[in-house]
Structures are given as C-alpha cells and as structure tokens.
C-alpha cells in the first residue's frame, strides 16, 4: 500500500523550508535517505545550529538565500507570492533575479547601465511586495544582462550568489506544447528555461504555477511534477 497523500504533502513542505543541503539530497539521493536528511536539516535550522562550512553558500546562523526569478509577468508574481508564503523564513534572505537579453550591436557600458537601471525600476515593486509581506527579511535585486541562453544564465547566477533554493514561475502548457517538449527531451534537445533550471541547478529548483480556479499551486521539482498544494 502506498503512503497517503497527506504524508507526501508534509514531506514536500518540509523540504521547501529546510536548508540547501537537504534540497540537494531530495533531488539526487534515494527517496528514503533524502526524506531523513530533509527532516534532520530542518530541525537543525530551527534549533539554530551553525553550518561552519556554509555548504551550498548557506549558513544556518544567517539562513538560506532564496532566489526568485522575476520579470513583469503574472507567473513571476505568483511564484514570488508562493515563495513568501511557503518557503521563506525570517532568517532567510531573498534575491530577486531579473535576467535581460543584450541587444544586438549595443555593447556600450553607459547604455548597459541605463538598461540595468530601467530593469531595476521594473521589478522594484516586487521588492516592495517582499518587504510588505516579510519586513524582517533582507531583499535584494540582481539584474543580469546576457547574450547567452536564459536558463544557463539563471543556473550560473544562482551558483554564484550561493542560492539555497531557486524559485521560478511557470505558465500553463497546452497539450500541443507538452507533446513537443517530450519529443525534444527524447531527442536530447532539452526543454524550456524552467526545465533546464530544474535539471541543472546545484540547489533545489522549484517551478510554481498557480491554478486558476481553486487557488492552489502546482509545484514541479526534479523529483515531483505538478504536485498540487492547496494553499
């Protein structure tokens, strides 16, 4: 007999609020071993034990760095709202990552500064939203302009910033798109940005999509696809 649905809900919720070392074991280790590590690390964080080595760029005394990929879409705001409610704790730090494309033929430093300044202004309301919901949590904005693939840039920046958790918004996929994505995966071509980040990030990467009717969220990680959380 399998475990009841409530069992898995509690386990997944625990992994979201545990340390980054537990997130890696959740995605890459065996199911039984990862659940034990999640529970152990969650208890250690709540007890205030220090992580001297700072594994994954995270120290228990200062909490994790929760990185949320943001832009001006509703999917981005939904993912941020979910992270603030279900993932971010008072001892954590929030990094709002905004990735923009480098315009072809425009590589002047001054022009890039102007574009970066405008990008900051675009996502600054999301920083205000974080400060309203989590006034005790430090929030910063990081803008990265790149000519490379967006997924690769996000993964590299999450590693550079020492993120313990990476959260991305995900839009609803049509049945036609899902068929194309499966075909691309079988052919070794890879999926979209979100799929790339989930399968290549060193830390736990979580894709979040808000359900339209009953208000819940569909959560996708390396080990869980479209897992439904009610609140």
Automatic annotation (TrEMBL):
Residues 1-60 are annotated as: Disordered. It holds the Pfam family Usp. InterPro entries: Rossmann-like_a/b/a_fold, UspA. Residues 15-34 have a biased composition (Low complexity). Residues 64-209 form the UspA domain. This is UspA domain-containing protein. It comes from Cardamine amara subsp. amara.
């Amino acid at each position: 007999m399998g475990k009841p649905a409530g069992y898995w809900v509690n386990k997944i919720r625990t992994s979201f609020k545990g340390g980054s070392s537990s997130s890696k074991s959740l995605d890459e280790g065996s199911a039984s071993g990862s659940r034990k590590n999640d529970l152990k690390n969650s208890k250690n964080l709540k007890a205030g034990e220090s992580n001297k080595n700072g594994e994954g760029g995270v120290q228990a005394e200062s909490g994790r760095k929760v990185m949320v990929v943001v832009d001006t879409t509703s999917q981005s705001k939904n993912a941020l709202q979910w992270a603030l409610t279900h993932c971010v704790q008072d001892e954590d730090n929030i990094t709002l990552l905004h990735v923009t494309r480098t315009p072809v033929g425009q590589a002047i430093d001054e022009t890039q500064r102007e574009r970066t300044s405008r990008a900051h202004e675009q996502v600054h309301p999301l920083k205000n939203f974080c400060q309203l919901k989590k006034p005790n949590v430090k929030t910063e904005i990081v803008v990265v302009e790149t000519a490379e693939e967006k997924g690769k840039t996000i993964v590299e920046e999450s590693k550079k910033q020492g993120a313990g958790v990476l959260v991305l918004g995900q839009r609803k996929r049509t049945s036609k798109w899902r068929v194309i994505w499966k075909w691309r995966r079988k052919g070794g071509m890879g999926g979209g940005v979100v799929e790339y980040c989930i399968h290549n990030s060193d830390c736990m990467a979580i894709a979040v999509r808000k359900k339209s009717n009953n208000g819940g969220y569909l959560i996708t990680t390396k080990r869980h696809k479209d897992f439904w959380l009610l609140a």
